[in-house]
Design a protein that fits this description.
This protein has helices at residues 7-23, 27-33, 91-98, 117-130, 141-149, and strands at 38-40, 46-50, 53-57, 74-78, 82-85, 136-137, 201-207, 230-233, 249-252, 261-263, 266-268. With 270 residues, the chain is α+β, with helices and mostly antiparallel strands. The longest helix is centred in the first third of the chain and has 17 residues, at 7-23. The termini are far apart.
């Protein structure tokens, strides 16, 4: 004969599941609340926690300039919290892992430059071997823009005012006479991340497809499977304010080594 729950037991499970569904108090949410807001690796890389959530990705109505690569804007959901390095990878950190310094502008606390996308992947392979637990990656475009915005729906992490951009970013310098700057010397965004605008462009994981936004998924989107170019984000010390907008996309061949391109990495949350 089929067994049935008694009324008290049934009532208990009913309350548990309904309460969990509507309050967000299920096991996954509970685990997420226990994640530390900041972690430090043995190699001296400091990471800030970026919470799961939704945002509008792409060029909004106030976007300045040609937005053919950045539209249509659409709501995107990041379903899992992740850690983002609070600054771009420095030359000292790169040397600890790779044993060399390819940068044009030298300085331990300057972001590493002159690294291709392929070089960035080699760095991550070695870092994952050296650090217990691993889980280090390049961010997807969606993760990068979500982290850069830090809850802002404006063109920048602080809103739309370009006059305030110099408080958060190194930019507007001459390419020939300018240089990258020590990381972390400008204001952080609301999630504790610095230099998301300016200093150096940053490699992300995605291949570039100019029309990808019109067909990419709304949940944890990744770029197309193949392509000739990889996406770079954030602008550099030689970019203008328009190029530093959170939604702005640019591209490079994955083999390119440029003095205006570096990297920022993420670590999967346990």
């Amino acid at each position: 004969m089929r067994r049935s729950f008694s009324i008290p037991v049934f009532f208990f499970f009913f309350v548990f599941f309904v309460f969990g569904a509507f309050s967000g108090a299920g096991p996954a949410k509970a685990r997420e609340k226990t994640l530390p807001p900041e972690i430090m690796t043995g190699m001296g890389l400091r990471f800030a926690l970026v919470p799961a959530g939704s945002f509008v990705m792409g060029a909004g109505p106030d976007f300045v300039g040609d937005a053919s690569y950045e539209r249509p804007a659409r709501e995107v959901r990041i379903t899992k919290s992740f850690y983002v390095s609070e600054t771009e990878v420095t030359q000292a950190q790169w040397v600890k892992v790779m044993g060399n310094n390819p940068s044009r502008h030298k300085g331990d606390d300057l972001p590493v430059d002159g690294v291709s996308h392929d070089d960035a992947l080699s760095f991550l392979r070695k870092l994952n071997e050296m650090e217990p637990g691993g889980g280090f990656k390049l961010p997807t475009e969606a993760q990068w823009e979500y982290a850069a915005r830090a809850g802002s729906g404006g063109n920048y992490c602080h809103g739309n005012d370009p006059d305030k951009l110099s408080e958060y970013a190194w930019y507007g310098e001459d390419l020939r006479t300018g240089s990258s700057h020590p990381v972390g010397t400008k204001k952080p965004n609301a999630w504790g991340l610095r230099d998301m605008h300016g200093n150096l462009f940053e490699w992300v994981a995605d291949f570039m497809d100019e029309n990808w936004y019109s067909r990419s998924p709304a949940k944890d989107p990744k770029g197309p499977e193949t392509g000739d170019f990889r996406v770079i984000r954030g602008g550099s010390y030689a970019s203008d304010a328009q190029g530093l907008q959170s939604a702005a996309r640019n591209l490079e061949l994955p083999s390119t080594r440029s003095m205006t391109v570096g990297l920022r990495i993420i670590k999967e949350a346990p």
